[in-house]
Specification:
InterPro entries: Bact_response_regulator, CheY-like_superfamily, Sig_transdc_resp-reg_receiver. Residues 30-159 form the Response regulatory domain. Helix 5 links the parallel strand 4 and strand 5 (140-143). The longest helix has 14 residues, at 38-51. It is built from 6 helices and 8 strands. The strands form 2 sheets. A 5-stranded parallel sheet has the order 2-1-3-4-5, with helices on both faces. It is α/β, with parallel strands linked by helices and 203 residues long. The chain is globular, with a radius of gyration of 18 Å.
Protein backbone atom coordinates (compact mmCIF):
# COMPACT_ATOMS: atom_id res chain seq x y z
CA UNK A 1 0.00 0.00 0.00
CA UNK A 2 2.85 2.38 -0.75
CA UNK A 3 2.41 5.76 -2.41
CA UNK A 4 -1.22 6.10 -1.40
CA UNK A 5 -2.70 9.38 -2.66
CA UNK A 6 -3.77 11.86 -0.02
CA UNK A 7 -7.55 12.03 -0.01
CA UNK A 8 -8.25 13.71 3.33
CA UNK A 9 -9.89 17.02 4.06
CA UNK A 10 -7.22 18.26 6.47
CA UNK A 11 -3.70 19.14 5.41
CA UNK A 12 -2.15 17.88 8.67
CA UNK A 13 -3.13 14.33 7.69
CA UNK A 14 -0.41 14.21 5.05
CA UNK A 15 1.08 10.78 4.50
CA UNK A 16 4.69 10.21 5.47
CA UNK A 17 6.85 7.12 5.19
CA UNK A 18 5.88 6.26 8.77
CA UNK A 19 2.20 5.97 7.84
CA UNK A 20 2.73 3.43 5.06
CA UNK A 21 1.41 -0.04 5.94
CA UNK A 22 3.26 -1.73 3.09
CA UNK A 23 2.48 -5.35 3.92
CA UNK A 24 -1.20 -5.00 4.76
CA UNK A 25 -4.30 -4.72 2.63
CA UNK A 26 -7.28 -3.39 4.61
CA UNK A 27 -9.60 -3.36 1.59
CA UNK A 28 -11.85 -6.11 2.97
CA UNK A 29 -12.19 -4.54 6.42
CA UNK A 30 -15.47 -2.98 7.54
CA UNK A 31 -15.10 -0.45 10.38
CA UNK A 32 -17.76 1.38 12.38
CA UNK A 33 -16.71 4.74 13.85
CA UNK A 34 -18.64 6.04 16.86
CA UNK A 35 -17.74 9.67 17.58
CA UNK A 36 -19.86 12.67 18.55
CA UNK A 37 -17.39 15.32 17.36
CA UNK A 38 -17.83 16.06 13.66
CA UNK A 39 -14.20 17.16 13.39
CA UNK A 40 -12.75 14.01 15.02
CA UNK A 41 -15.21 11.83 13.14
CA UNK A 42 -14.01 13.32 9.84
CA UNK A 43 -10.37 12.77 10.83
CA UNK A 44 -11.07 9.12 11.61
CA UNK A 45 -13.02 8.54 8.39
CA UNK A 46 -10.31 10.06 6.23
CA UNK A 47 -7.51 8.31 8.13
CA UNK A 48 -9.13 4.92 7.54
CA UNK A 49 -9.68 5.72 3.87
CA UNK A 50 -6.04 6.73 3.51
CA UNK A 51 -5.06 3.39 5.03
CA UNK A 52 -7.22 1.67 2.41
CA UNK A 53 -10.05 0.36 4.61
CA UNK A 54 -12.76 -0.84 2.25
CA UNK A 55 -15.91 0.08 4.19
CA UNK A 56 -16.11 2.90 6.73
CA UNK A 57 -19.35 3.74 8.53
CA UNK A 58 -19.84 6.47 11.11
CA UNK A 59 -22.46 7.34 13.73
CA UNK A 60 -22.62 10.02 16.41
CA UNK A 61 -23.05 8.10 19.68
CA UNK A 62 -23.38 4.67 21.26
CA UNK A 63 -27.15 4.55 20.83
CA UNK A 64 -26.86 5.02 17.08
CA UNK A 65 -24.11 2.40 17.01
CA UNK A 66 -26.34 -0.14 18.76
CA UNK A 67 -29.11 0.48 16.23
CA UNK A 68 -26.63 0.20 13.36
CA UNK A 69 -25.21 -3.11 14.61
CA UNK A 70 -28.72 -4.49 15.04
CA UNK A 71 -29.59 -3.47 11.48
CA UNK A 72 -26.47 -5.16 10.13
CA UNK A 73 -27.88 -8.42 11.46
CA UNK A 74 -31.53 -7.78 10.61
CA UNK A 75 -31.33 -5.89 7.29
CA UNK A 76 -27.76 -5.76 5.91
CA UNK A 77 -28.92 -4.46 2.53
CA UNK A 78 -30.32 -1.35 4.20
CA UNK A 79 -27.06 -0.38 5.92
CA UNK A 80 -24.79 -1.51 3.09
CA UNK A 81 -22.77 -4.23 4.79
CA UNK A 82 -23.22 -7.80 5.97
CA UNK A 83 -20.85 -7.41 8.89
CA UNK A 84 -18.78 -4.97 10.92
CA UNK A 85 -15.26 -6.20 11.58
CA UNK A 86 -14.10 -3.54 14.06
CA UNK A 87 -15.76 -0.87 16.20
CA UNK A 88 -13.80 2.32 16.93
CA UNK A 89 -15.60 4.32 19.60
CA UNK A 90 -14.96 7.47 21.56
CA UNK A 91 -15.28 6.96 25.31
CA UNK A 92 -16.95 10.19 26.40
CA UNK A 93 -20.17 10.85 24.48
CA UNK A 94 -23.78 11.74 25.20
CA UNK A 95 -26.33 10.30 25.67
CA UNK A 96 -24.77 6.82 25.21
CA UNK A 97 -21.02 6.73 25.78
CA UNK A 98 -18.37 4.26 24.67
CA UNK A 99 -18.41 2.22 27.86
CA UNK A 100 -22.16 1.64 27.64
CA UNK A 101 -21.72 0.59 24.01
CA UNK A 102 -18.88 -1.77 24.94
CA UNK A 103 -20.95 -3.30 27.74
CA UNK A 104 -23.84 -3.85 25.33
CA UNK A 105 -21.59 -5.39 22.68
CA UNK A 106 -20.01 -7.83 25.13
CA UNK A 107 -22.92 -8.73 27.39
CA UNK A 108 -26.33 -7.95 25.91
CA UNK A 109 -28.37 -10.82 24.49
CA UNK A 110 -29.22 -8.72 21.42
CA UNK A 111 -25.58 -8.06 20.55
CA UNK A 112 -25.01 -9.62 17.11
CA UNK A 113 -21.30 -10.28 17.75
CA UNK A 114 -19.97 -10.44 21.30
CA UNK A 115 -16.48 -11.15 19.93
CA UNK A 116 -16.22 -7.99 17.81
CA UNK A 117 -12.85 -6.19 18.18
CA UNK A 118 -13.44 -2.90 20.01
CA UNK A 119 -11.02 0.04 19.94
CA UNK A 120 -11.71 2.65 22.62
CA UNK A 121 -10.64 6.18 21.67
CA UNK A 122 -9.88 8.26 24.72
CA UNK A 123 -7.89 11.07 26.23
CA UNK A 124 -8.09 9.35 29.62
CA UNK A 125 -4.77 7.92 30.75
CA UNK A 126 -5.46 7.22 34.42
CA UNK A 127 -4.80 3.56 35.32
CA UNK A 128 -8.25 3.34 36.92
CA UNK A 129 -9.93 4.32 33.65
CA UNK A 130 -7.79 1.95 31.60
CA UNK A 131 -8.56 -0.92 33.98
CA UNK A 132 -12.28 -0.13 33.85
CA UNK A 133 -12.33 -0.51 30.07
CA UNK A 134 -10.21 -3.67 30.18
CA UNK A 135 -12.58 -5.18 32.73
CA UNK A 136 -15.44 -4.48 30.34
CA UNK A 137 -13.69 -6.31 27.48
CA UNK A 138 -12.01 -3.64 25.35
CA UNK A 139 -9.62 -4.94 22.70
CA UNK A 140 -7.37 -1.92 22.11
CA UNK A 141 -6.98 1.72 23.16
CA UNK A 142 -6.33 4.63 20.79
CA UNK A 143 -5.04 7.67 22.64
CA UNK A 144 -5.88 11.23 21.65
CA UNK A 145 -4.32 12.96 19.82
CA UNK A 146 -3.86 10.11 17.35
CA UNK A 147 -1.96 9.69 14.09
CA UNK A 148 -2.63 7.63 10.98
CA UNK A 149 0.32 5.46 11.99
CA UNK A 150 -1.27 4.79 15.39
CA UNK A 151 -4.59 3.82 13.80
CA UNK A 152 -2.84 1.50 11.35
CA UNK A 153 -0.90 -0.12 14.18
CA UNK A 154 -4.13 -0.85 16.07
CA UNK A 155 -5.65 -2.50 13.00
CA UNK A 156 -2.53 -4.61 12.52
CA UNK A 157 -2.51 -5.57 16.20
CA UNK A 158 -6.09 -6.82 15.95
CA UNK A 159 -5.34 -8.78 12.78
CA UNK A 160 -1.99 -10.25 13.84
CA UNK A 161 -2.49 -10.81 17.56
CA UNK A 162 -6.00 -12.12 17.92
CA UNK A 163 -6.64 -13.06 21.52
CA UNK A 164 -8.82 -15.87 22.78
CA UNK A 165 -11.91 -14.83 24.74
CA UNK A 166 -12.42 -15.59 28.40
CA UNK A 167 -15.86 -16.12 29.95
CA UNK A 168 -16.34 -16.00 33.72
CA UNK A 169 -19.22 -14.92 35.94
CA UNK A 170 -17.94 -11.34 35.96
CA UNK A 171 -16.08 -11.00 32.67
CA UNK A 172 -16.50 -11.70 28.97
CA UNK A 173 -13.89 -10.41 26.58
CA UNK A 174 -10.38 -10.82 25.18
CA UNK A 175 -7.78 -12.47 27.38
CA UNK A 176 -6.31 -9.51 29.27
CA UNK A 177 -2.85 -11.06 29.41
CA UNK A 178 -0.88 -9.67 26.47
CA UNK A 179 1.75 -12.39 26.67
CA UNK A 180 2.88 -15.17 28.92
CA UNK A 181 5.43 -14.01 31.48
CA UNK A 182 8.69 -15.91 31.71
CA UNK A 183 8.27 -17.52 35.11
CA UNK A 184 9.54 -20.75 36.62
CA UNK A 185 6.66 -21.30 39.00
CA UNK A 186 2.91 -21.68 38.75
CA UNK A 187 1.32 -18.23 38.72
CA UNK A 188 -1.86 -18.58 40.78
CA UNK A 189 -2.88 -14.96 40.21
CA UNK A 190 -4.04 -15.45 36.61
CA UNK A 191 -6.99 -17.32 35.18
CA UNK A 192 -6.48 -20.31 32.90
CA UNK A 193 -8.84 -22.70 31.15
CA UNK A 194 -8.37 -25.02 34.14
CA UNK A 195 -9.38 -22.42 36.72
CA UNK A 196 -12.74 -23.00 38.47
CA UNK A 197 -15.62 -21.24 36.73
CA UNK A 198 -13.58 -20.19 33.69
CA UNK A 199 -14.43 -21.02 30.10
CA UNK A 200 -12.03 -20.20 27.26
CA UNK A 201 -14.14 -19.20 24.27
CA UNK A 202 -12.70 -19.23 20.78
CA UNK A 203 -14.67 -17.19 18.29
Amino acid sequence: MKNLPYRGLYTHLEITEETEMADYDFERLSVLIVEDSLFIRSLLINSLRILGVGKVFAVEDGGEAINFLKQVKEDPMKVGTQEVDIVMSNWQMSPVDGMILLRWARRHKESPDRFIPFIMITGFSEPKRVQEARDMGVTEFLAKPFTIQAIGNKLISIIERQRQFVHTRSYFGPDRRRRQADIDFEDRRVLTDKSPGVEIVRG
